[in-house]
């Protein structure tokens, strides 16, 4: 199952709907940090028509440092027309917004478990990657690294190492756990009618959501469509 697909034409994101029949309908909106404004506008407009939105976001200076490479990327002329993923306009729809991510304090606890040398490496490399992307990257290069499926790629499997496990725990698994907790609370809440839930979250986290829905809760996929995230042209 693909969440984000990159091709010679550009990048597109899947909109995936799962249903339990009578419990709820859950729609997944896999997200990336950078895309075209129309993609985010259409995605948020759609999500805000659900009953509930589970959204991501860790307000932490650590995260700001890590994502600096994306923010600096947008200063490149080659990226004209792209924007950083904006916040969801909570006042624009009927949906109840549920923060399904770690608090800054919780993330800091996870971050302190990462070995000191690795934390320092991330701090040092993030701005360097940002500068490299600003001056040397373009849309095709950016798109090439955006592919994401329900199973880890060969490159991802090769990158797994014991010394980086705490980093993966902090930026992926701990947040997956919180997302599933929030999703479970919504699914287990008694409702008089079928509830619609939108999950607007990073594409890599959708793997955990799909496993939870299909393997544990016996949801079935009932709909899928592609939406253009960005073209490879300027």
- N-to-C SSE series? EEEEHEHHEEHHHEHHEHE
Overall strand count: 10
Mean pLDDT, rounded to whole units? 88
Q: Kindly estimate the percentage of residues that lie in beta strands according to DSSP.
A: 15-25%
Which descriptor suits the 3D outline?
A: globular
- Rg measurement, Å: 18 Å
N- to C-terminal distance: 29 Å
Largest sheet: 8 strands, mixed
Low-confidence stretches: none
Structural class: alpha/beta
Helix content: 40-55%
What's the number of helices? 9
Number of domains: 1
Written account of the structure:
The radius of gyration is 18 Å and the shape is globular. It has helices at residues 37-47, 61-66, 68-73, 104-112, 116-136, 139-144, 154-159, 165-188, 206-216; strands at residues 2-7, 10-19, 24-31, 34-35, 52-55, 83-84, 96-99, 148-149, 195-202, 220-231. Helix content is 43%, strand content 25%. It has one domain (2-231). The protein is built from nine helices and ten strands. Strand 1 (2-7) and strand 2 (10-19) form a beta hairpin. The chain starts with a strand and ends with a strand. With 234 residues, it is α/β, with parallel strands linked by helices. The longest helix has 24 residues, at 165-188. The strands form two sheets. Strands 1, 2, 3, 5, 7, 8, 9 and 10 form an eight-stranded mixed sheet that branches.
Relevant terms:
single chain, 234 residues, alpha/beta, 8-stranded mixed beta sheet, two-stranded antiparallel ribbon, 9 helices
TL;DR?
The chain is α/β, with parallel strands linked by helices and 234 residues long. The chain contains nine helices and ten strands. The longest helix has 24 residues.
